[in-house]
Amino acid sequence: MTKQPLVNMYKILSIAAGLALFTLACQQPAKTNQQEDANNNAQQTPASNVKVPVFEVDSAYAYTAKQVSFGPRIPNTPAQKKCADWLIQQLKPLADTVYVQHTTVIGPKKVSLPCINIIASFNPAATQRILLLSHWDTRPHADQDAFDKTKQLDGADDGASGVGVLLETARQLHAQKPQAGIDILLTDVEDYGVSEEENSFCLGTQYWARNPHVRGYKANYGILLDMVGGRASQFYMEAGSQQYAYGPMKMFWDVANRLGYSDYFRYENIGAGITDDHVYVNTIANIPTFDIIALQPNGNFVPHWHTTNDNMTVIDKRTLQVVGQTILEVIYKQPFEY
Asked: Cα separation of 243 and 130, whole Å?
């Protein structure tokens, strides 16, 4: 994930540079039936009458901590396989279908990296769908650390927090079936890139965008979670998200503010454009997708980003609750009202 306004960081690009990366294409292989829902819509319970489940934050926190317990989830390490096996094990009893993409991607300096994307599908017959995604891998070194840039990091916020929220979301989707179709995409090899090599980040998402789990897969929109667990996080409307997915993003922010989360979901335009997984979902898969990611008001990443301080001490249950409850409110009450 790349950045520009300040130094040579990796997640935020200036708006001009970020938008220049966007190109169009699309492709797909197969599995699942998504066709019968149109005739049933009239008989479904009005969304306004649906009781929204309570997001169990202790569960999301435990899911986050469990990922961290495997150690840094760096591609081509034992922790990568152990964590992937555990994620699949968690999702299989919850989802209608779980797809696993095993592939090899080419990272910086032409290094071959094993990549494991995991997709959990809920209510597969529904034609109206929302894609929820987060990366589960860890950056191989703490390149922004003030003391030792060669050390590995836990990636508690940058990776594990978003996945923790989505695993708890999956648990709720299993307990109370939504009317909308939901697909949870956990992507690998997101954070192995270097700023000198264009498109070297988000390799698992780039692969999925060209090779989706279902032939012809489409969703109405996507929501990317990246760094959504840090204490007192603030989420601003990112520039590329505004360009490609302003409607659903504005709806999400409005819901969060209506729930009383205005300290977290901010409307101020700080002008930050981020090269993150949503770029490739927008431009290759052509699914309007917005990014929920913690930023500082000056457009910088939060201080623990890509440092050894990104561990469980920065994870705050209140932040996980705010993000997770807003997701459930949108899914069950107004998934397509934008």
From this structure: 18
| C-alpha dist (Å) from residue 30 to 47, 129, 175, 212, 231 | 31, 17, 27, 8, 40
In the chain, where the domains are located: 12-24+55-333
| The CATH fold of domain 12-24+55-333 | Aminopeptidase (3.40.630)
DSSP secondary structure, 89-101, as one string: HHHTTTSSEEEEE
Q: Radius of gyration over alpha carbons of the chain, in Å?
A: 18
Single pTM value for the model: 0.89
Contacts by 145-149, CB closer than 8 A, 24 or more apart: 145/306, 145/307, 145/308, 145/309, 146/307, 147/308, 148/308
Name the maximum alpha-carbon separation found in the chain. Answer: 61
Whole-number Å distance between alpha carbons of 192 and 164: 21
Amino acid at 5: P
Residue in 331, 283, 302 with CA at minimum distance from that of residue 166: 331
pLDDT in tens, the chain (338 residues): 664 333 333 444 433 334 333 333 333 333 334 334 433 443 455 677 899 999 999 999 999 999 999 999 999 999 999 999 999 999 999 999 999 999 999 999 999 999 999 999 999 999 999 999 999 999 999 999 999 999 999 999 999 999 999 999 999 999 999 999 999 999 999 999 999 998 999 999 999 999 999 999 999 999 999 999 999 999 999 999 999 999 999 999 999 999 999 999 999 999 999 999 999 999 999 999 999 999 999 999 999 999 999 999 999 999 999 999 999 999 999 999 99
As a whole number of angstroms, the distance between CA 153 and CA 139 comes to 7
Strand partners, 97: 121
| 192 neighbors 120 (Cβ within 8 angstroms) | no
> Strands 129-135, 181-187: parallel, antiparallel or unpaired by DSSP?
parallel
C-beta neighbour count of 38 within 10 angstroms = 10
